[in-house]
Amino acid sequence: MPRFTGINHLAMATGDMDATIRFWRDLLGMRLVAGLGHPGYRHYFFEIAPQDMIAFFEWPKVEPGPLKDHGAPVAGPHTFDHVSVGVASDDDLWKLRDKLDAAGFWVSEIIDHGFIHSIYSFDPNNIAIEFSAPVAGVDVRAHPVNTDTAPSPAAQEGPEPQSGHWPPPTPTPAADRAVYPGEGQAIVEALKKRGKI
Fold it and tell me: DSSP of 40-83, one letter per residue?
């Protein structure tokens, strides 16, 4: 079986890379670890955690999707592009490619993106899926690089979060802090019944 390592990156779309950088890097504190592009096209990657990234394509005519509650059904325009699931090696890509092909799903050849090798497919819901394996010796997390030939002004500031672009937060007083129950409470109750927590 393939050795899945987590979500390599979630690929989204934006019409304003500077606003995106300001939010993900400067507001949330995620490092900008890779940037690809040329006039009319950009693809930037932000580090979520040691194994996870979120990426954005910048396309000139992309507009933000309508506000939508999490998990609520949607019709019409949306903002999700594809999900990339990390695997440990090219051998895992070949195993997945063979499995998808044998099951009758369309699957791409292995594509060399420089710092990752990838295959592409679709799930039964037509969700676009990429599987990505790291390239040995090429670590954009340890050594961020941006090869965009026309980087946005915010990207030119480098990979680290930049201060001064957002107002400082006012901490919520301890007396006002509350955690509200969500759908996951059923998981907690099930674990309690099994004596696991």
Answer: TEEEEEEEEETTEEEEEEE-TT--PPPP--TT----S---EEEE
Measured in residues, the chain has a length of 197
What is the SS3 assignment for 133?
A: strand
* pLDDT by residue, tens only, the chain of 197 residues: 788 988 899 998 899 999 999 989 998 889 999 999 888 889 999 999 898 999 999 988 888 876 666 677 878 777 778 889 899 999 999 999 999 999 998 999 999 999 999 999 998 777 888 999 999 999 999 999 999 999 999 999 999 999 999 999 999 999 999 999 887 887 888 889 989 99
pTM check: above 0.85: no
Q: Are 135 and 34 in contact (CB under 8 A)?
A: no
Distances (CA, A) of 45 to 66, 108, 153, 161: 23, 22, 16, 13
DSSP E strands, the chain: 4-14, 32-38, 41-49, 52-58, 80-87, 111-112, 116-122, 128-134, 145-146
Which domains can be identified in the chain, with CATH numbers?
4-193 (3.10.180.10)
